[in-house]
Write a structure and sequence with these properties.
Blueprint lengths: L4 H4 L21 H6 L10 H9 L10 H16 L6 E9 L6 E14 L4 E4 L4 E3 L3 E6 L2
Antiparallel strand pairs: 1-2, 1-5, 2-3, 3-4
């Protein structure tokens, strides 16, 4: 197709016609008009997936033998003192259910039970802390 004066005159017959206003359909607001061009629904959940990927997690800290021995001593001490209703602060790793890594949680309170066969510390408020995930114990009382 050749560009030139013939192309510029192709629409001369309609270019100056008045804008059509429907007598049947009400005028669409700019907001509704823009909504027609919203992202295709196949992308629903895409932004949530991007947020999930960007969410940071912590890596699990691996304790050395000396640190593990110290924790075991503190757990045995708490076990021996359960009748005294000891209080302690525990920090432990909580694995993320959606991706690799997790987060660390710290809780202070009264130790109710230590269940070696379930590998769990049970706090007075009902919180159950897995012994294998504990990285720090501070005996408070």
């Amino acid at each position: 197709m050749q560009h030139g004066s013939d192309d510029s005159r192709r629409y001369d017959d309609i270019i100056r016609l008045p804008h059509h206003v429907s007598s049947v359909h009400p005028h669409m607001s700019m907001r509704d008009r823009a909504a027609q061009f919203a992202p295709f629904s196949a992308l629903n959940g895409h932004s949530a997936a991007i947020r999930e990927t960007a969410r940071l997690t912590d890596r699990r800290i691996e304790l050395d033998e000396a640190e593990a021995d110290l924790l075991n001593e503190k757990i045995m001490l708490l076990q021996e003192r359960l009748d005294e209703e000891p209080s302690a602060a525990f920090t432990w790793f909580v694995p993320d259910i959606h991706k690799e890594g997790g987060s660390y949680r710290t809780l202070s309170g009264q130790v109710k039970k230590i269940l070696p066969f379930e590998n769990t510390v049970v706090m007075a408020d009902g919180t159950r802390i897995p012994l294998d995930e504990i990285i720090e114990i501070e005996i408070l009382k």
